[in-house]
Amino acid sequence: MRLPFTKFAGSALLCALLAAALSSPASAQRQTERSRQKVTAEKQRAGIKQRLAAIQRDIARTESEKEDAADELAESEAAISDANRALRDLAEEQDATSTRLDLLSTEGARLQQTIVTQKKQLSQLLREHYVAGNEDRIKLLLSGDNPNRINRDLQMMAYVSQAQARLLDSLRTNLAQVEANKDKVENAQLELQEIADEQRDQKARLEQEKGKRSALLQNLSTRLADQHKQADRLQRDEARMSDLVDRLSRLIREQAEAERRRQAALAAAKAKAEAEEKARALARAKAASEKAERERIARQNAKPGTKPAPVPEPEPPKVAEQPKPVETRPSTPPPQEVPLAPPLPAGAFASLKGRLTAPVSGAIAARFGQRRTEGLSWKGMFIKAPEGTDVRAVGPGRVVHADWMRGWGNVIIVDHGGEYLSTYGNASAMLKRAGDMVRAGDVIASAGSTGGNAESGLYFELRYRGKAFDPASWVKF
Asked: Is the pLDDT reported for residue 419 higher than 60?
């Protein structure tokens, strides 16, 4: 028996689709979406880092003492902080990518099962079409059979053809989705491999830097012990911190004042434009009223049967042309500027007095105002905590400083608005960067002993308008 052309075409199409499902081109080397996002994020942070680096350089130029044993720890401790932060970020990325890979695998299995079912249905349709013989539409029309039967058979053949077409379209769509799913799975697997490689590199770098730091601490232990006994060194450290805070506070105030002036200028320009528009509307209304009155008087004075003379159109009222308002600077700072002033109400942080959560869990080793050394007292609190313990922001705000500082190690400063600042020193890792917005309770650092500290923990300060005050009545320790 010779099969009609439609059967051969359907079989060929099915074979082609099956071949497409079983074969996929090898994935070429490509850049993952994760890599592109990392490059973009680093570019955005370059401007913030540049501005704060300029502040640090300015402070360093004002110091007479440039050589301190603790300075030798700066590079190593900063590198350890970077490595710890990178490992934490990579772990979070790995979890998210693994979850995405599981979802893709589940979706891929569902699509494969759907395709298997559709292939069986298509095979059944082709088999039934083959068994029915090679009666095509032309033969049915020329058979001379009952017209009702011919019409019924033609309708049945049309339904079968439509079902086959729909099934083939659905099969093509599912096969395309399978290919897209395979690409996504391959991309996720590549990203997981990238993360694993980066984790290995970061761990190796961390171990190397820790070994380097241990050697430095061992070599400098005697010198650091002598330096801790010197009040002048502590005074320089405190002066350095105060200088940094003063500069940051001044810059925050300047930015807030500039924004206030900009908003005031915009409000004034808007009010002026509205007043001018109102004056013009009143003038137009007055002119229309005067015109209507003149027309009424002209109609009254006109003789019967004569057409009243047209009333001349009054000249439009002249409104003094005002100079265009000077364009103000956009609220978005240029790339090199650091947005230091947080978008928080002035009294938001002050309203949280007595309800702030402790930045870290641990025993308080030094309190505000306690005697520290000859002529000096603590300007904040030192809380003992094992290295790596999470340090959390006590309130919402923006990170305005995240860098190593002589005498304080890795330091993060958060601006809470209303000229309130919180300081977190001696961190082993800074998990936030300058310019990052944080919420109350967000992990921003890890406790440590950077800056030459003998004990691991956290140095914590609260300042208002640059002056340190006792956190005990503000924070629930």
From this structure: yes
